Amino acid sequence: MAFEGLAERLQGTINKIKGKGKVNEQDVKEMMREVRFALIEADVNLKVVKTFIKKVSERAVGQDVMKSLTPGQQVIKIVKDELTNLMGGEQSPIKFATKPPTVIMMVGLQGAGKTTTTGKLANVLRKKYNRKPLLVAADVYRPAAVQQLQTLGKQLSLPVFALGTDISPVEIVRQALEKAKEEHHDVVLVDTAGRLHIDENLMQELKDIRGLKEPDEVFLVVDAMTGQDAVNVAESFNEAVGITGVILTKLDGDTRGGAALSIRSVTEKPIKFVGMGEKMDALEQFHPERMASRILGMGDVMTLIEKAQATVDEDKARELEEKFKTQSFTLDDFLDQMSQVKKLGPLDEILKMLPGANKIKGLENAKIDDKQIGHIEAIILSMTPAEKTNPEIINASRRKRIAKGSGSSVQEVNRLIKQFDDMKKMMKQMTGMAQKGKKKMKLP
Ligand code: GDP
Protein backbone atom coordinates (compact mmCIF):
# COMPACT_ATOMS: atom_id res chain seq x y z
CA MET A 1 0.00 0.00 0.00
CA ALA A 2 1.16 3.57 -0.63
CA PHE A 3 2.59 5.47 2.32
CA GLU A 4 2.78 2.35 4.43
CA GLY A 5 6.16 3.04 6.04
CA LEU A 6 5.43 6.72 6.56
CA ALA A 7 1.99 6.02 7.97
CA GLU A 8 3.37 3.44 10.37
CA ARG A 9 6.10 5.72 11.67
CA LEU A 10 3.93 8.79 11.98
CA GLN A 11 1.22 6.84 13.75
CA GLY A 12 3.77 5.41 16.15
CA THR A 13 4.97 8.90 16.97
CA ILE A 14 1.44 10.19 17.36
CA ASN A 15 0.46 7.41 19.72
CA LYS A 16 3.22 8.46 22.07
CA ILE A 17 1.89 11.98 22.41
CA LYS A 18 -1.82 11.31 21.98
CA GLY A 19 -2.98 10.98 25.54
CA LYS A 20 -0.50 13.29 27.22
CA GLY A 21 -2.09 15.68 29.69
CA LYS A 22 0.93 17.93 29.50
CA VAL A 23 3.22 18.57 26.58
CA ASN A 24 6.41 20.56 26.92
CA GLU A 25 8.86 21.88 24.39
CA GLN A 26 11.08 18.87 24.83
CA ASP A 27 8.20 16.52 23.93
CA VAL A 28 7.50 18.49 20.78
CA LYS A 29 11.18 18.50 19.88
CA GLU A 30 11.42 14.74 20.25
CA MET A 31 8.28 14.20 18.26
CA MET A 32 9.49 16.47 15.49
CA ARG A 33 12.76 14.59 15.30
CA GLU A 34 10.87 11.38 14.64
CA VAL A 35 8.55 13.07 12.14
CA ARG A 36 11.57 14.45 10.32
CA PHE A 37 13.10 10.98 10.03
CA ALA A 38 9.83 9.55 8.83
CA LEU A 39 9.48 12.17 6.10
CA ILE A 40 13.06 11.85 4.92
CA GLU A 41 12.69 8.11 4.79
CA ALA A 42 9.56 8.54 2.69
CA ASP A 43 11.71 10.40 0.17
CA VAL A 44 10.19 13.81 0.82
CA ASN A 45 12.21 16.73 -0.52
CA LEU A 46 14.62 18.02 2.16
CA LYS A 47 13.62 21.65 1.86
CA VAL A 48 10.00 20.66 2.18
CA VAL A 49 10.76 18.62 5.31
CA LYS A 50 12.58 21.53 6.91
CA THR A 51 9.80 24.04 6.33
CA PHE A 52 7.20 21.55 7.48
CA ILE A 53 8.98 20.80 10.75
CA LYS A 54 9.52 24.49 11.42
CA LYS A 55 5.85 25.32 10.90
CA VAL A 56 4.57 22.47 13.04
CA SER A 57 7.06 23.17 15.83
CA GLU A 58 6.19 26.85 15.98
CA ARG A 59 2.51 26.17 16.21
CA ALA A 60 2.89 23.24 18.60
CA VAL A 61 4.85 25.10 21.26
CA GLY A 62 2.38 27.98 21.12
CA GLN A 63 0.57 29.00 24.29
CA ASP A 64 -2.83 27.78 23.12
CA VAL A 65 -1.60 24.25 22.70
CA MET A 66 0.39 23.96 25.88
CA LYS A 67 -2.42 25.31 27.99
CA SER A 68 -5.19 23.34 26.34
CA LEU A 69 -6.80 20.39 28.08
CA THR A 70 -5.75 17.98 25.40
CA PRO A 71 -2.34 19.15 24.21
CA GLY A 72 -1.47 15.78 22.67
CA GLN A 73 -4.55 15.90 20.45
CA GLN A 74 -3.83 19.52 19.56
CA VAL A 75 -0.35 18.67 18.34
CA ILE A 76 -1.77 15.88 16.19
CA LYS A 77 -4.30 18.28 14.72
CA ILE A 78 -1.49 20.67 13.82
CA VAL A 79 0.46 17.87 12.12
CA LYS A 80 -2.65 16.96 10.14
CA ASP A 81 -3.36 20.59 9.18
CA GLU A 82 0.17 21.14 7.99
CA LEU A 83 0.27 17.85 6.08
CA THR A 84 -2.93 18.98 4.39
CA ASN A 85 -1.41 22.38 3.58
CA LEU A 86 1.67 20.69 2.23
CA MET A 87 -0.45 18.84 -0.30
CA GLY A 88 -2.29 21.99 -1.33
CA GLY A 89 -4.94 22.55 1.35
CA GLU A 90 -8.14 22.51 -0.64
CA GLN A 91 -9.12 20.13 -3.40
CA SER A 92 -8.37 21.77 -6.74
CA PRO A 93 -11.17 21.49 -9.32
CA ILE A 94 -10.79 21.16 -13.09
CA LYS A 95 -10.87 24.48 -14.88
CA PHE A 96 -13.38 24.42 -17.72
CA ALA A 97 -13.45 26.94 -20.55
CA THR A 98 -16.25 29.48 -20.45
CA LYS A 99 -16.60 28.94 -24.17
CA PRO A 100 -16.30 25.23 -25.07
CA PRO A 101 -14.48 23.20 -25.98
CA THR A 102 -12.23 22.95 -22.94
CA VAL A 103 -8.80 21.82 -24.05
CA ILE A 104 -6.84 19.58 -21.72
CA MET A 105 -3.29 18.61 -22.65
CA MET A 106 -1.83 15.51 -21.07
CA VAL A 107 1.95 15.59 -20.84
CA GLY A 108 4.56 13.36 -19.22
CA LEU A 109 7.41 10.94 -19.66
CA GLN A 110 6.97 7.55 -21.26
CA GLY A 111 5.64 4.89 -18.95
CA ALA A 112 4.25 7.37 -16.42
CA GLY A 113 0.72 6.29 -17.32
CA LYS A 114 -0.24 9.19 -19.59
CA THR A 115 -2.28 7.27 -22.15
CA THR A 116 -4.05 5.19 -19.51
CA THR A 117 -4.81 8.33 -17.49
CA THR A 118 -6.18 10.09 -20.59
CA GLY A 119 -8.75 7.30 -20.86
CA LYS A 120 -9.53 7.41 -17.14
CA LEU A 121 -9.93 11.16 -17.14
CA ALA A 122 -12.27 11.05 -20.14
CA ASN A 123 -14.33 8.55 -18.19
CA VAL A 124 -14.49 10.88 -15.16
CA LEU A 125 -15.41 13.84 -17.38
CA ARG A 126 -18.29 11.95 -18.86
CA LYS A 127 -19.55 10.26 -15.71
CA LYS A 128 -19.04 12.95 -13.12
CA TYR A 129 -19.25 16.13 -15.18
CA ASN A 130 -21.63 15.01 -17.92
CA ARG A 131 -19.25 16.12 -20.65
CA LYS A 132 -18.84 14.83 -24.16
CA PRO A 133 -15.08 14.38 -24.56
CA LEU A 134 -13.06 13.79 -27.69
CA LEU A 135 -9.81 11.93 -27.16
CA VAL A 136 -6.92 12.88 -29.42
CA ALA A 137 -4.10 10.46 -30.17
CA ALA A 138 -1.12 12.77 -30.62
CA ASP A 139 1.55 10.49 -29.18
CA VAL A 140 2.99 9.42 -32.50
CA TYR A 141 6.36 8.32 -31.14
CA ARG A 142 5.72 5.59 -28.64
CA PRO A 143 4.99 2.43 -30.58
CA ALA A 144 1.36 1.45 -30.18
CA ALA A 145 0.32 4.52 -28.16
CA VAL A 146 -2.24 5.50 -30.82
CA GLN A 147 -3.62 2.01 -30.89
CA GLN A 148 -3.68 1.87 -27.10
CA LEU A 149 -5.80 5.02 -26.91
CA GLN A 150 -8.12 3.67 -29.60
CA THR A 151 -8.58 0.48 -27.62
CA LEU A 152 -9.37 2.47 -24.47
CA GLY A 153 -11.82 4.59 -26.45
CA LYS A 154 -13.59 1.49 -27.66
CA GLN A 155 -13.71 0.08 -24.18
CA LEU A 156 -15.26 3.30 -22.86
CA SER A 157 -17.41 3.88 -25.95
CA LEU A 158 -15.79 7.27 -26.44
CA PRO A 159 -14.55 8.67 -29.78
CA VAL A 160 -10.82 8.87 -30.45
CA PHE A 161 -9.41 11.18 -33.09
CA ALA A 162 -6.37 9.59 -34.74
CA LEU A 163 -4.51 10.11 -38.01
CA GLY A 164 -1.84 7.45 -37.62
CA THR A 165 1.78 8.19 -36.85
CA ASP A 166 3.05 9.81 -40.05
CA ILE A 167 1.46 13.19 -39.47
CA SER A 168 2.85 15.78 -37.08
CA PRO A 169 1.16 15.97 -33.68
CA VAL A 170 0.49 19.67 -34.17
CA GLU A 171 -1.46 18.94 -37.35
CA ILE A 172 -3.35 16.15 -35.61
CA VAL A 173 -4.41 18.47 -32.82
CA ARG A 174 -5.35 21.22 -35.27
CA GLN A 175 -7.68 18.89 -37.14
CA ALA A 176 -9.02 17.43 -33.90
CA LEU A 177 -10.02 20.89 -32.69
CA GLU A 178 -11.97 21.44 -35.90
CA LYS A 179 -13.68 18.12 -35.54
CA ALA A 180 -14.57 18.85 -31.92
CA LYS A 181 -16.28 22.05 -33.05
CA GLU A 182 -18.19 20.29 -35.82
CA GLU A 183 -19.34 17.49 -33.58
CA HIS A 184 -19.98 19.60 -30.49
CA HIS A 185 -17.51 17.98 -28.16
CA ASP A 186 -17.19 20.15 -25.09
CA VAL A 187 -13.83 18.75 -23.94
CA VAL A 188 -10.80 17.85 -26.05
CA LEU A 189 -8.28 15.63 -24.27
CA VAL A 190 -4.93 15.50 -26.01
CA ASP A 191 -2.60 12.57 -25.34
CA THR A 192 0.73 14.13 -26.31
CA ALA A 193 4.01 12.34 -26.93
CA GLY A 194 6.08 11.16 -24.04
CA ARG A 195 9.82 10.60 -24.19
CA LEU A 196 12.18 8.61 -22.08
CA HIS A 197 13.89 11.81 -20.93
CA ILE A 198 13.09 15.45 -21.15
CA ASP A 199 14.49 16.82 -24.38
CA GLU A 200 14.33 20.00 -26.41
CA ASN A 201 12.36 18.57 -29.33
CA LEU A 202 9.64 17.25 -27.07
CA MET A 203 9.27 20.56 -25.29
CA GLN A 204 9.16 22.45 -28.58
CA GLU A 205 6.45 20.15 -29.86
CA LEU A 206 4.37 20.68 -26.73
CA LYS A 207 4.81 24.44 -27.06
CA ASP A 208 3.65 24.25 -30.69
CA ILE A 209 0.53 22.35 -29.66
CA ARG A 210 -0.07 24.93 -26.96
CA GLY A 211 0.23 27.62 -29.61
CA LEU A 212 -2.78 26.29 -31.55
CA LYS A 213 -5.23 27.16 -28.83
CA GLU A 214 -4.33 28.05 -25.27
CA PRO A 215 -5.24 24.94 -23.26
CA ASP A 216 -7.42 25.35 -20.20
CA GLU A 217 -5.42 22.73 -18.35
CA VAL A 218 -2.03 21.14 -18.91
CA PHE A 219 -1.86 18.08 -16.71
CA LEU A 220 1.47 16.49 -16.04
CA VAL A 221 1.17 12.77 -15.46
CA VAL A 222 3.88 11.46 -13.14
CA ASP A 223 4.58 8.10 -11.63
CA ALA A 224 4.39 8.37 -7.83
CA MET A 225 6.72 5.40 -7.50
CA THR A 226 9.61 7.49 -8.78
CA GLY A 227 9.58 9.58 -5.59
CA GLN A 228 11.62 12.76 -5.71
CA ASP A 229 12.43 12.14 -9.32
CA ALA A 230 8.79 12.91 -10.01
CA VAL A 231 9.37 16.30 -8.42
CA ASN A 232 12.32 16.99 -10.73
CA VAL A 233 10.28 15.97 -13.76
CA ALA A 234 7.46 18.26 -12.66
CA GLU A 235 9.84 21.19 -12.24
CA SER A 236 11.36 20.68 -15.69
CA PHE A 237 8.03 20.36 -17.45
CA ASN A 238 6.69 23.36 -15.62
CA GLU A 239 9.64 25.52 -16.59
CA ALA A 240 9.60 24.42 -20.21
CA VAL A 241 5.91 24.17 -21.08
CA GLY A 242 4.04 25.43 -18.07
CA ILE A 243 1.70 23.00 -16.34
CA THR A 244 -1.52 23.75 -14.50
CA GLY A 245 -1.79 20.59 -12.43
CA VAL A 246 -0.37 17.19 -11.68
CA ILE A 247 -1.85 13.71 -11.85
CA LEU A 248 0.04 11.21 -9.73
CA THR A 249 -0.27 7.64 -10.97
CA LYS A 250 0.34 4.28 -9.32
CA LEU A 251 -0.60 5.43 -5.85
CA ASP A 252 -2.03 1.95 -5.44
CA GLY A 253 1.54 0.62 -5.46
CA ASP A 254 3.90 0.76 -2.53
CA THR A 255 5.15 4.28 -3.12
CA ARG A 256 6.75 5.83 -0.07
CA GLY A 257 4.89 9.09 -0.50
CA GLY A 258 7.72 11.49 -1.34
CA ALA A 259 6.17 12.67 -4.60
CA ALA A 260 2.72 13.31 -3.18
CA LEU A 261 4.14 15.26 -0.27
CA SER A 262 6.71 17.34 -2.14
CA ILE A 263 5.31 18.12 -5.56
CA ARG A 264 2.90 20.85 -4.54
CA SER A 265 5.40 22.77 -2.39
CA VAL A 266 8.17 22.60 -4.95
CA THR A 267 6.18 23.38 -8.10
CA GLU A 268 3.27 25.26 -6.54
CA LYS A 269 1.00 23.30 -8.87
CA PRO A 270 -1.88 21.34 -7.39
CA ILE A 271 -2.27 17.58 -7.54
CA LYS A 272 -5.63 17.21 -9.22
CA PHE A 273 -6.09 13.46 -9.47
CA VAL A 274 -4.44 10.26 -8.36
CA GLY A 275 -4.31 6.96 -10.22
CA MET A 276 -5.25 4.04 -8.01
CA GLY A 277 -4.99 1.12 -10.43
CA GLU A 278 -4.87 0.06 -14.03
CA LYS A 279 -8.60 -0.10 -14.64
CA MET A 280 -10.52 2.71 -16.30
CA ASP A 281 -12.41 3.64 -13.13
CA ALA A 282 -9.29 3.89 -10.97
CA LEU A 283 -8.82 7.66 -10.99
CA GLU A 284 -9.73 9.63 -7.88
CA GLN A 285 -9.94 13.32 -7.31
CA PHE A 286 -7.15 14.30 -4.94
CA HIS A 287 -8.29 15.65 -1.59
CA PRO A 288 -5.33 16.83 0.51
CA GLU A 289 -7.18 16.61 3.80
CA ARG A 290 -8.41 13.11 3.16
CA MET A 291 -4.95 12.00 2.14
CA ALA A 292 -3.44 13.50 5.32
CA SER A 293 -6.08 11.69 7.30
CA ARG A 294 -5.22 8.40 5.62
CA ILE A 295 -1.52 8.86 6.27
CA LEU A 296 -2.18 9.51 9.94
CA GLY A 297 -4.38 6.43 10.29
CA MET A 298 -7.56 8.43 10.77
CA GLY A 299 -9.25 6.75 7.84
CA ASP A 300 -10.96 8.29 4.86
CA VAL A 301 -14.66 7.78 5.37
CA MET A 302 -15.63 10.48 2.87
CA THR A 303 -13.99 8.70 -0.04
CA LEU A 304 -15.54 5.45 1.09
CA ILE A 305 -19.01 6.99 1.10
CA GLU A 306 -18.48 8.55 -2.32
CA LYS A 307 -17.24 5.26 -3.70
CA ALA A 308 -20.28 3.50 -2.33
CA GLN A 309 -22.61 6.13 -3.74
CA ALA A 310 -21.02 5.88 -7.15
CA THR A 311 -21.00 2.12 -7.37
CA VAL A 312 -23.88 0.80 -5.31
CA ASP A 313 -27.30 0.93 -6.84
CA GLU A 314 -29.41 2.92 -4.37
CA ASP A 315 -32.73 1.30 -5.18
CA LYS A 316 -31.19 -2.07 -4.74
CA ALA A 317 -29.64 -1.02 -1.42
CA ARG A 318 -33.02 0.17 -0.16
CA GLU A 319 -34.65 -3.05 -1.29
CA LEU A 320 -31.99 -5.05 0.55
CA GLU A 321 -32.46 -2.99 3.70
CA GLU A 322 -36.17 -3.74 3.61
CA LYS A 323 -35.39 -7.43 3.23
CA PHE A 324 -33.02 -7.27 6.18
CA LYS A 325 -35.75 -5.78 8.29
CA THR A 326 -38.43 -8.24 7.31
CA GLN A 327 -35.95 -11.08 7.28
CA SER A 328 -36.98 -12.15 3.82
CA PHE A 329 -33.40 -12.14 2.60
CA THR A 330 -32.70 -15.00 0.18
CA LEU A 331 -29.61 -16.54 -1.34
CA ASP A 332 -30.29 -14.58 -4.51
CA ASP A 333 -30.02 -11.39 -2.49
CA PHE A 334 -26.86 -12.69 -0.90
CA LEU A 335 -25.34 -13.07 -4.35
CA ASP A 336 -26.53 -9.61 -5.33
CA GLN A 337 -24.94 -8.12 -2.27
CA MET A 338 -21.63 -9.83 -2.88
CA SER A 339 -21.40 -8.48 -6.38
CA GLN A 340 -22.19 -4.96 -5.14
CA VAL A 341 -19.41 -5.18 -2.57
CA LYS A 342 -17.09 -6.51 -5.24
CA LYS A 343 -17.73 -3.44 -7.36
CA LEU A 344 -16.29 -1.25 -4.61
CA GLY A 345 -12.86 -2.75 -5.16
CA PRO A 346 -10.58 -5.04 -3.16
CA LEU A 347 -11.94 -5.49 0.34
CA ASP A 348 -8.60 -4.82 2.02
CA GLU A 349 -8.41 -1.44 0.27
CA ILE A 350 -11.93 -0.58 1.41
CA LEU A 351 -11.24 -1.54 5.01
CA LYS A 352 -8.14 0.62 5.06
CA MET A 353 -10.35 3.67 4.64
CA LEU A 354 -11.92 3.07 8.04
CA PRO A 355 -10.38 4.86 11.00
CA GLY A 356 -8.04 2.60 12.98
CA ALA A 357 -8.23 -0.16 10.38
CA ASN A 358 -4.48 -0.10 9.98
CA LYS A 359 -4.28 -1.70 13.40
CA ILE A 360 -6.24 -4.73 12.31
CA LYS A 361 -3.84 -7.59 11.79
CA GLY A 362 -4.17 -9.88 8.83
CA LEU A 363 -6.06 -7.37 6.70
CA GLU A 364 -4.15 -8.52 3.69
CA ASN A 365 -6.01 -11.82 3.90
CA ALA A 366 -9.36 -10.08 3.62
CA LYS A 367 -9.42 -10.34 -0.13
CA ILE A 368 -12.47 -11.61 -1.92
CA ASP A 369 -11.04 -12.76 -5.18
CA ASP A 370 -12.99 -13.01 -8.38
CA LYS A 371 -12.55 -16.75 -8.49
CA GLN A 372 -14.14 -17.17 -5.09
CA ILE A 373 -17.12 -15.05 -6.09
CA GLY A 374 -17.44 -17.00 -9.32
CA HIS A 375 -17.59 -20.17 -7.26
CA ILE A 376 -20.26 -18.85 -4.93
CA GLU A 377 -22.22 -17.65 -7.91
CA ALA A 378 -22.05 -21.11 -9.52
CA ILE A 379 -23.25 -22.77 -6.32
CA ILE A 380 -26.21 -20.43 -5.89
CA LEU A 381 -27.14 -20.69 -9.55
CA SER A 382 -27.28 -24.48 -9.22
CA MET A 383 -30.04 -24.24 -6.63
CA THR A 384 -33.73 -24.37 -7.40
CA PRO A 385 -35.84 -21.26 -6.69
CA ALA A 386 -37.35 -23.02 -3.68
CA GLU A 387 -33.90 -23.76 -2.28
CA LYS A 388 -32.77 -20.18 -2.74
CA THR A 389 -35.75 -18.84 -0.85
CA ASN A 390 -35.78 -21.52 1.84
CA PRO A 391 -32.25 -22.81 2.29
CA GLU A 392 -33.38 -24.92 5.26
CA ILE A 393 -34.82 -27.48 2.82
CA ILE A 394 -31.35 -28.15 1.41
CA ASN A 395 -30.68 -31.63 2.83
CA ALA A 396 -27.73 -33.92 2.20
CA SER A 397 -28.88 -35.23 -1.17
CA ARG A 398 -29.70 -31.74 -2.39
CA ARG A 399 -26.26 -30.57 -1.27
CA LYS A 400 -24.69 -33.34 -3.30
CA ARG A 401 -26.71 -32.40 -6.36
CA ILE A 402 -25.81 -28.69 -6.01
CA ALA A 403 -22.12 -29.51 -5.59
CA LYS A 404 -22.16 -31.61 -8.72
CA GLY A 405 -24.09 -29.05 -10.72
CA SER A 406 -21.71 -26.24 -9.82
CA GLY A 407 -18.48 -28.17 -10.08
CA SER A 408 -17.65 -27.68 -6.41
CA SER A 409 -17.38 -29.91 -3.36
CA VAL A 410 -20.09 -30.62 -0.79
CA GLN A 411 -17.89 -28.87 1.80
CA GLU A 412 -17.97 -25.71 -0.25
CA VAL A 413 -21.74 -25.86 -0.48
CA ASN A 414 -21.91 -26.41 3.29
CA ARG A 415 -19.63 -23.48 3.93
CA LEU A 416 -21.74 -21.17 1.82
CA ILE A 417 -24.98 -22.19 3.49
CA LYS A 418 -23.38 -21.70 6.90
CA GLN A 419 -22.12 -18.26 5.91
CA PHE A 420 -25.59 -17.32 4.78
CA ASP A 421 -27.14 -18.63 8.02
CA ASP A 422 -24.63 -16.72 10.12
CA MET A 423 -25.35 -13.57 8.24
CA LYS A 424 -29.09 -13.98 8.74
CA LYS A 425 -28.57 -14.51 12.46
CA MET A 426 -26.43 -11.43 12.67
CA MET A 427 -29.05 -9.40 10.85
CA LYS A 428 -31.73 -10.60 13.20
CA GLN A 429 -29.67 -9.45 16.16
CA MET A 430 -28.93 -6.13 14.55
CA THR A 431 -32.54 -5.37 13.67
CA GLY A 432 -33.50 -6.44 17.18
CA MET A 433 -30.98 -4.03 18.64
CA ALA A 434 -32.11 -1.22 16.39
CA GLN A 435 -35.73 -1.74 17.38
CA LYS A 436 -34.88 -1.81 21.08
CA GLY A 437 -32.93 1.40 20.58
CA LYS A 438 -35.92 3.02 18.97
CA LYS A 439 -38.21 1.99 21.83
CA LYS A 440 -35.75 3.36 24.35
CA MET A 441 -35.66 6.69 22.60
CA LYS A 442 -39.39 6.98 22.86
CA LEU A 443 -39.39 6.61 26.66
CA PRO A 444 -40.05 9.84 28.51
P1 GDP B 1 2.48 6.24 -21.04
O1 GDP B 1 3.72 5.80 -21.74
O2 GDP B 1 2.75 7.36 -20.09
O3 GDP B 1 1.35 6.56 -21.97
O4 GDP B 1 2.05 5.04 -20.09
P2 GDP B 1 0.84 4.00 -20.15
O5 GDP B 1 -0.46 4.72 -20.08
O6 GDP B 1 1.03 3.06 -21.25
O7 GDP B 1 1.06 3.27 -18.74
C1 GDP B 1 2.21 2.53 -18.42
C2 GDP B 1 1.83 1.39 -17.48
O8 GDP B 1 1.43 1.89 -16.22
C3 GDP B 1 0.67 0.57 -17.99
O9 GDP B 1 0.94 -0.78 -17.75
C4 GDP B 1 -0.51 1.03 -17.15
O10 GDP B 1 -1.49 0.05 -16.99
C5 GDP B 1 0.18 1.35 -15.84
N1 GDP B 1 -0.56 2.34 -15.01
C6 GDP B 1 -0.99 3.57 -15.36
N2 GDP B 1 -1.60 4.18 -14.32
C7 GDP B 1 -1.57 3.32 -13.27
C8 GDP B 1 -2.04 3.37 -11.91
O11 GDP B 1 -2.61 4.36 -11.41
N3 GDP B 1 -1.80 2.25 -11.16
C9 GDP B 1 -1.17 1.15 -11.65
N4 GDP B 1 -1.00 0.13 -10.84
N5 GDP B 1 -0.71 1.08 -12.91
C10 GDP B 1 -0.91 2.13 -13.72
UniProtKB/TrEMBL annotation:
It catalyses: GTP + H2O = GDP + phosphate + H(+). Residues 270-283 form the SRP54-type proteins GTP-binding domain. PROSITE patterns: SRP54. GO terms for cellular component: signal recognition particle. One of its GO terms (biological process) is SRP-dependent cotranslational protein targeting to membrane. It comes from the Bacteria. One of its GO terms (molecular function) is 7S RNA binding. It is found in: Cytoplasm. Keywords: Cytoplasm, GTP-binding, Hydrolase, Nucleotide-binding, Ribonucleoprotein, RNA-binding, Signal recognition particle. Its EC number is 3.6.5.4. It is an enzyme of class 3 (hydrolase). InterPro entries: AAA+_ATPase, P-loop_NTPase, Signal_recog_part_SRP54_M_sf, Signal_recog_particl_SRP54_hlx, Signal_recog_particle_SRP54_M, SRP, SRP54, SRP54_GTPase_dom. Part of the signal recognition particle protein translocation system, which is composed of SRP and FtsY. Belongs to the GTP-binding SRP family. SRP54 subfamily. Involved in targeting and insertion of nascent membrane proteins into the cytoplasmic membrane. Binds to the hydrophobic signal sequence of the ribosome-nascent chain (RNC) as it emerges from the ribosomes. The SRP-RNC complex is then targeted to the cytoplasmic membrane where it interacts with the SRP receptor FtsY. Interaction with FtsY leads to the transfer of the RNC complex to the Sec translocase for insertion into the membrane, the hydrolysis of GTP by both Ffh and FtsY, and the dissociation of the SRP-FtsY complex into the individual components. This is Signal recognition particle protein. It comes from Rummeliibacillus stabekisii. The lineage of its organism: Bacteria, Bacillati, Bacillota, Bacilli, Bacillales. The gene is ffh.
